[in-house]
Every structure is written in structure tokens, then in C-alpha cells.
Design goal:
alpha/beta, Ribosomal Protein S5, domain 2, Rossmann fold, 2 domains, five-stranded parallel beta sheet, four-stranded mixed beta sheet, elongated
Length: 498
Amino acid sequence: MLARTRTLALHGVDAIPVDVEIDIHRGLPAFSLVGLPDAAVRESRERVRAAIVNCGFEFPLKRITASLAPADLRKAGPGFDLAIAAAILVASEQLAAEPLAAWWLAGELALDGSIRRVPGLLAMAEAVAARGGGGIAVAASNAGEAHLVDGVGVAALGTLADLRLLARGELPPEPPTRPPPVAPGPLPDLADLRGQPGLRNALEVAAAGGHGVLIVGPPGAGKSLAARRLPSILPPLGRAEAIEVTKIASVAGRPPPDGTLSGRPFRAPHHTISAAGLVGGGSPPRPGEITLAHRGVLFLDELGEFNRSSLEALRQPLEDGWVTIARARSSITFPAGFQLIAAANPCPCGHGEASDRCNCSRERIAAYAARLSGALADRFDIAQRVEQPSADALAGDPGEASATVAARVMAARERQEARLGPGRTNASMSQAELAVHVALGEAAGVALAEGHASYGLSGRGWNRVLKVARTCADLEGANEVGTEHVNTALALRRRSGS
């Protein structure tokens, strides 16, 4: 007898429908699984067999063929267990087919028949909603994640035995409830950064406009301390952004306990990370650090210690906001709209060529600097050179608290969203949008031309100065970009001291 059920397979951060077809006919007992399954899917045969028996059903001692369609899509992970087991029970006439046909099934089976949560459930629920809605039957621990999507009925199953109730219509969908956002933990306060007024201002401008920042200075100057306090002055995620970030975390197997994430991601990978770990890769391709930092901050500490190949892989995602991982069978696109913050020493020893404490040769300094190509350096909107603060500055009063700075940042972001659209920042402006929203007066145009001549700005650098100038104007509540805003943007780009 032939039976069909429906489930979903993850493809990047999205989900694709998969039909599970089971054929049971006479012959020597066997259980074959086809449709490009990976090892975890192939092993489902043993999990399904044990779960069916341990939940009081009868496992058919016949020849069973399970097909996962489409056949040319590689299937990975244990999330197909529930749909395979349900199809076997329908094909062996232990469950009614028609009631189950209305449900999408996703869950991993334990040997005792209990149902475990699977990664990427939010993406699966969104795929169900995009196909006209309906119901999705999942593990009880996955139900909160599925409830985040409107228009999708959710059936929470504890064990495989609950399929009897679902097939009889005795397990109605749970009432739609939207779990509250998961509040982030306490963030370190910007008031801890002392003796670096220029760096504080750079962080505020970067947070307001979504700009990338490169901080260069000796050890102990506060580079890492400053970068780790940037999230405390960023605005919280909007509803759509929170869903997007939560979906990525779920696909990566790191969903919140319940509800959506409200704090922006902050990722700080070690400098030994590979290019695949940074931008994504593997088989099947998995999201890398730049995707896990989507809508948040990617912090690269000790930038000069990263492999050049890893750093160069960032160039295209920084421009496009997404990255495509190409494989022989298919290609997967991951979102990568992150804000890049990097910290670097001026030389291998860290003190800088101008310091009496530096013992690095010119060759070592040149080789160290060459790890950051000019093309990647040009993609930082803001570059700051810092020095170690004095004893008086460290012992002095703390600076403004994060809450005070965050209020100004929020006001500037609201002006940008009113101008560009929800979730947009000045850093994402296109060439056409620059022409419309950054019309310089005569004096401001002269200041930019002089800066171009003095600092040898590239075409990209010219545009990025305009974007930072627009952010400086937004922080002041100014409608027009003036000369003072252009001069500030130029100063922020030329690695000036604090």
C-alpha cells in the first residue's frame, strides 16, 4: 500500500517542502530509504522502527520503501523521522490518511517514541504560511517557535502515540499565542571607556548609521573594551528583524528558550577561524559567523592575526549584505547584513613603529600590515587610531552612560528609517539614494574636494564619507549636510588620534 505525508527540509535559512512516500508490499522484510539522504536521515530507519514498536504500534514485517521527494535535493538532519513514521502507520492502515494529510510533520524520534525538537522550525513554519497556511505538528518543545508565525496552526506532540489523537481529530491546534521577546542579558556600559573621547564619538556615529569601524592602537588602549560596548548603544530589534535573527539562530541550532531574540547579535570569532567558518560552508552548507551576526555586530579582534584569505572573503558580503555558497549540486544564499568592527595593533609587537618600545623590523611591519588589503580597508567607513589613556583619564570620572548615548542613536535611526524605510541605515544607501539625500552646498562640496585631494579618497571612499556625513547631520537633527559634518566624516576616516 502507498501512503504520503508532508514535511520540510532546510535549505540555507529557508525551508523547502518534502513529500514522504512510503510503499509497503510483500517480500522479505527490508526498509530502504531513497532521495539523497545523509547519514542522519539514513539512521532514521532504526529510530522509526523502535519508536513505532515502543508506542504500541505494529511495525510491518514486509518490504518498505521510503522516498523523500524531490529526489535531487539532499536531505540532512533528523527532522524527517516523524513524517516517515506517520507514513508507515498510514500505509499499514494503523492510522487514517485523510486527517494527517492536512498537517506538516517535523520532529526527531527517540527510541521510546518521544519527539524531540529540530533546528530551523521557525523557517519551516514560515514556509507553511507562505503556502497558504495550514497546520504543523511538532515536538512540544518546538511549539513556541512555531507560534511566532501568524496563520499557522500548531499541534504539540509529546510522543508518536499522539498521532492517534491527531488522526482522529482529537488533538486540536493549540490556541495561537505569541511568546514574548527574550530580553538580552545586561550589557557592559559605555561609561567604562575612559580617556578616549574620539573613540567614543566614533562609536556613536557608527551605531547611529550602521557604519564599519577599524580601531588601531597598542594593547591596553581600550579597543576591545570599546567594541564590546557597541551593542549597548544600538537600538533594539524591530519585530521583523527579531524574527529574522531568531530564524537564523534556530537554523544554526541555537534558538532561544522561547520567543524571539530582542538584542542584536554580537559575534567575536577567534583569529584562527577559517574562511568557511567566517562566511559559511560545509556539506550541507551551514551559516558562518557573518550570518550569525546578521542585523548585529561582527567583531574581529587582533585583525592582523587573521588569515588573509578569511579577511578577503568578507569583501563581497560587506558590499551586498548576503553571501552565496556554491556547490556542485546547488548554491545557497545566506543573509549577511552585519556591522563590522575590527581592532588591530599597529605592528606585531603592538607598540607601533614610533614607540621606543617597538622592536619590529620594517619587513615584519610591512608583512603584518599586508594582511589587511587596501580593498578591505577601504570598506571601513570609520578608522580611528588610539593611544593608551593617561593615568589621570583612567582615574577620572566616567563618560556618558550607554543609555544617554543610545537615546541619541535611536533618534538618528528614526530619521533614517523615515527617509529610507524600516530597518535601513545610512550605511546601506545606494548611489541613487546618496544623490537624493546628501546634496552638499558649495562650502561642503569644497571641503569634500579638499579632503579627496589630501587623503586620496577612492570612489568608494568618497561615497562612504558622504554617508558618514549624513549620519553626523542626523545625530544633530540637521536636515542638510553641512561643512562641519563633512569635516567630521573626513576626520573619522583618516585614523586620527583621540
